[in-house]
Amino acid sequence: MKKKASIHLSIETVVLIIIAVVFLALSILFVGYIFHNANIDIKDVFSSVTKTKIEQLKLSEKVFDLETYTLDIKPGEKKDIIMLLRNKGNYENYSWEISHTVSNITGDVDCNAIQFNYKSNMSIMPGQDATPPMIIQTLNNINKGTCLFELTAKDSEDYVETLSLTINII
Question: Which of 146, 150, 155 has its CA nearest to residue 165?
Fold first, then answer.
């Protein structure tokens, strides 16, 4: 004798399954609608963070300043910081010339294995500010330690400002 398999579902069970599927579909549509209308772009988030950093830096009274004076970075990592150059004059453009020197403070680190990129010459209109980025990148095989970068900014009137940036390889 063969047995036939059968499924016996009550009407209440069928109604509950239909209601559950409907609620699931509605919740998926609702979440999709929220994310679609949010229009959040990662680039916008990063640009707003950068704008905030620039606005904080512009509060400085200095003609040459940095966003931070200490930076922790891992081997192979790339970070950027913002520098401020200002022309407080009213009548002529200032030309700034940026340069740096580097020295090893601690550890067995080769400070020349840190790539330090920035715009070295910049002209600024009277009463204006410039906030160019400095891009700092380490090689993958760099040892841990601390390097000191001395940044020098010289304007067209031979006024010189010097700042120190400590980079810790962690």
Answer: 150
- Coil/strand/helix, residue 3: coil
Over residues 42-95, the pLDDT tens digits come to 455 457 778 888 889 899 999 999 999 999 999 999 999 999 999 877 778 888
Residues sharing a CB contact under 8 Å with residue 111, sequence separation 6 or more, in sequence order: 102, 103, 104, 147
Query: pTM, whole model, 2 decimals?
Result: 0.67
Q: 60 CB contacts (<8 Å, ≥6 apart)?
A: 84
- Contact status, residue 119 vs residue 100, Cβ threshold 8 Å: no
Tell me whether residue 72 is in a domain: yes
CATH label of the domain that carries residue 136: 2.60.40.10
d(CA 111, CA 168): 10
Split into its structural domains, the chain has a count of 1
Terminal Cα-to-Cα distance of the chain (whole angstroms): 77
Residue-wise pLDDT for 7-22, tens only, equals 667 888 889 999 999 9
Does any domain span residue 34?
no
CA 136 – CA 117 distance, rounded (Å):
6
Structural domain including 125 reads: 63-169
CA 40 to chain CA centroid, nearest Å? 17
